[in-house]
Amino acid sequence: MNELLLTALSQYGIKEITGSSHNPTILKYFSEIGHEWVKDDETAWCSAFINWCTLKAGYERSGKLNARSWLDLGTTLDIPTLGCVVVMWRTTKDSMYGHVGLYIGEDKDYVYVLGGNQGNEVNISKFPKYRVLGYRNLNKV
Q1: Which helix (H) or strand (E) holds 50?
Q2: Rounded to whole angstroms, how far apart are CA atoms 59 and 102?
Q3: What CATH number corresponds to the domain at position 14?
Q4: CA distances from 137 to 47, 49, 120 (A)
Q5: pTM metric for this prediction
Q6: pLDDT, tens only, 40-74
């Protein structure tokens, strides 16, 4: 199993704190990737989480907080591999909104993704395959 996937798995179960308090671990993701201006765990953090994981594991990273920024890195994969980056659309296919995580597996209708801000926590969740915009294999740095 690659370092990126192991790094993400080490954070499994980290979740937002409801109310006026904020999870310091989620704030650390933002701070350590250069977005220390974020002071709450309600700011969309799926891309911050993957950026933090890639930073710690020594892979290239987008440095951006928008999920679709990951479509510009690495190489395109027609067939996903364990731990590759999965980028999906949110709201509509043409909107600026998206979600990013790491590929775990799939079945006929769903892709299983390890990511942050999935139900406000780091976990493995399923997403409809039709929402996948691309799979990316990242380079080590």
Answers
A1: helix 46-57
A2: 13
A3: 3.90.1720.10
A4: 16, 17, 26
A5: 0.96
A6: 999 999 999 999 999 999 999 999 999 999 999 99
